[in-house]
Amino acid sequence: MRADTSTTETGAAEVIARGCVRPIKTSTGIWVRCGSRIKSSCGSCAELYRGDWASIARSGVFDGPVQNYRFYLLTLTAPSFGAVHRVPRSETKAAPVCGCGVQHLVQDAGLRGVPLRPSSYDYAGQAAWNRDAGLLWDRTRRRLRDRWDSVEYFIVREWQDRGVLHVHVLVRIERSEAPDAAVLRDAARSAVAFSKIDGARVEWGAQAKCDAFRADGDGAKTIWYLSKALNYVMKDVVHQGETVHPRVWSHLLALEHAARAMRCAPDCEPEFCRGRVHERYGARSQVVSASRRTKRRPGWSFTGLTRTVQRRLRLEWFLANVEASAAAAHPAEKVEAVEGRSLRVRRELAPCAAAVP
After folding, report:
1. Which of 302, 318, 336 is at the close of a domain?
2. Cα–Cα distance for residue pair 334/340, rounded to 1 Å
């Protein structure tokens, strides 16, 4: 019994030593990283997540024949579900008069995104839009590829202050068919979908933006912008450790209640359903994704880089260093200890072979 306890403590300690603050024990008894993308939950795993996706984003801009492509940064937002407080993000910009009649200051940031009239705000509609946003993006992606066959993309879904998703998308199109940025923006914004759950029409909001950029010009700046967006999505919707306005809590609680009450599938019974959609203000989509390589498409990453590949590369790097340490350790007991550790890490980090391109 003592040996088992010692082994358990050692396994957890090794994962903690690699930075994860709350390792998880699998059904096979192996301790692994928690894999959280929220910085307040585990900074180490969140940074690993951000770094992996930032590398994939860069790979689709800098690691191929960029002279053959045109690049765009497309931003799409959700429609309005009711008027909210307008609070400036910088002291250098003149603040517009808010709908409440007050010209807010940066210090009023706690009110940003809070409805002016909560009693008439469409919480149910916002939660349902979050739920169906993934379907809307799928229709948008198809619409773009119907017009420009070479479209590849890298998308980051970011939370707005009002608790609704909007998306930033890196788009790559071959120069031979590349459109003007305004044409691409209008084609994306005009896409619509119909909910598979209640048949409601789902569409983007009126605010949309698309800018073309050069890989050898603004490419690095654009990747930095996306990396900054990744930092935002790794935070909680309500930042911990800061003073939060009571009306923010009221707003998020109302949105949470709406998400809890809605159906997440045609046969969903909300009062009994335990789907995570009900816990995430209605959202079901992955935070970050990119077009994948197929038999007829190169995918976003020119080199086929995915998080699975990055886990495999980390595993190979670790094992190479472990083997070097084992070769330098002559005592048999040290070799045995290193080999045991190598086996545990292999089982923790090894990706599914079928998923590696």
Report:
1. 302
2. 10
Q: Are 177 and 148 in contact (CB under 8 A)?
A: yes
How far the first Cα of the chain sits from its last, in Å, is: 43
Q: Would you place residue 8 in the very low, low, confident or very high pLDDT band (cuts 50, 70, 90)?
A: low
Residue 21, token pair as written in the block: 């603050």
- Residue 56 placed within a domain: yes
Tokens of 319: 């094992």
Phi and psi angles of residue 202, each rounded to the nearest 5 degrees, phi first: -120, 130
Q: What is the pLDDT of residue 218?
A: 62
The whole model's pTM is what?
0.79
Crossing angle of the two packed helices 43-62 and 307-328, in degrees rounded to 10: 110
Q: Which two tokens stand for residue 303?
A: 């080199």
Tokens for 153, please give them. Answer: 């993309």
Burial class (CB in 10 A: 0-12, 13-18, 19+), 102: middle
- Rounded Cα distance between 258 and 278, Å, is 9
CA distance 185 to 143: 12
Residue 223 lies in domain? 45-82+117-302
Contact 132, 202 (CB under 8 A): yes
What are the beta bridge partners of residue 202? Answer: 193
Interval 181-206: pLDDT, tens: 999 999 999 999 999 999 999 999 99
Q: Considering 302, 319, 340, which residue would you say is the last residue of a domain?
A: 302
Buried-state track 115-131, b at ≥16 Cβ within 10 A, e below 16? bbeeeebebbbbbbbbb
70 touches 175 (CB < 8 A): yes
Q: What is the Cα–Cα distance from 37 to 41, expressed in whole angstroms?
A: 8
Tell me if residue 290 falls in helix, strand or coil: strand
**Cα 172 to Cα 223: distance, rounded to the nearest angstrom:** 13
Give the number of other Cβ atoms within 10 Å of residue 209's Cβ. Answer: 13
What's the domain count of the chain? Answer: 2
Over the stretch 210-248, which tens digit does the pLDDT of each residue have? 998 887 766 566 666 666 655 555 454 444 445 567 888
Rounded Cα distance between 306 and 301, Å, is 8
Residue (of 153, 167, 172) closest to 283 by Cα position: 167
> Is residue 272 over pLDDT 60?
yes
Q: What is the pLDDT of residue 102?
A: 85
